[in-house]
């Protein structure tokens, strides 16, 4: 399961770390402590919270500042739903106030290892939505 630090969650939600701490203290989003005493949020919990508040985006570049594709209109965010069929799959990503839904093959979802709570980027080109897994 992917987990997020308070700072990472704040960047995803577009708010300050203090705001995320206040939300956690108020019980709006569940946290737990790691071995070092840092507060972490499980990806599934953060995904549910993102849907609830209609927030989500991440930076449009990888951590090292490099883009991984030439497609424009990137919507970095968090996977909020994965529905697998026999052949096709549906993946939902919350990116800021935007909820993006992509239909792709089950094989593609499995190869990317997509699951609720993971960071991902939806890339929209014309009428197609491409999904990039973020680490």
Architecture overview:
This protein is of the alpha+beta class. The protein folds into two domains: 51 residues, Orthogonal Bundle (Multidrug-efflux Transporter Regulator, Chain: A, Domain 2); 60 residues, RNA polymerase II/Efflux pump adaptor protein, barrel-sandwich hybrid domain (OB fold (Dihydrolipoamide Acetyltransferase, E2P)), CATH 2.40.50. It is 26% helix and 36% strand. The chain is built from four helices and eight strands. The strands form two sheets. Strands 6-5-4-7-8 form a five-stranded antiparallel β-sheet. A three-stranded antiparallel β-sheet has the order 1-3-2. A hairpin with a 5-residue loop joins strand 2 and strand 3. Helix 1 packs across helix 2. The two termini are 12 Å apart. About 10% of the residues have low confidence.
Using only C-alpha atoms, the radius of gyration works out to 15 Å
CATH homologous superfamily classification of the largest domain: RNA polymerase II/Efflux pump adaptor protein, barrel-sandwich hybrid domain
Unreliable runs, pLDDT <50, ≥5 residues? 55-67
Spell out the helices and strands N to C. Answer: EHHEEHEEEHEE
- Provide the β-strand percentage band: 35-45%
What helical percentage do the residues reach? 25-40%
Number of spatially distinct domains? 2
- The rounded distance between the terminal residues' Cα atoms is 12 Å
| Total number of strands | 8
């Amino acid at each position: 399961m992917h987990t997020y630090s308070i700072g990472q969650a704040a960047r995803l939600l577009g708010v300050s770390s203090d705001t995320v701490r206040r939300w956690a203290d108020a019980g709006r989003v569940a946290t737990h402590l790691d071995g070092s005493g840092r507060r972490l949020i499980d990806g599934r919990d953060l995904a549910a919270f993102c849907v609830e508040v209609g927030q989500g985006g991440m930076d449009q570049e990888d951590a090292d500042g490099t883009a991984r594709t030439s497609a424009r209109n990137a919507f970095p965010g968090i996977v909020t739903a994965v529905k697998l069929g026999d052949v096709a799959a549906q993946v939902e990503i919350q990116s800021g106030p935007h909820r993006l839904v992509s239909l792709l093959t089950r094989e593609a979802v499995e190869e990317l290892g997509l699951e609720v709570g993971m960071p991902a980027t939806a890339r929209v080109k014309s009428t197609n939505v491409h999904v990039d897994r973020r680490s």
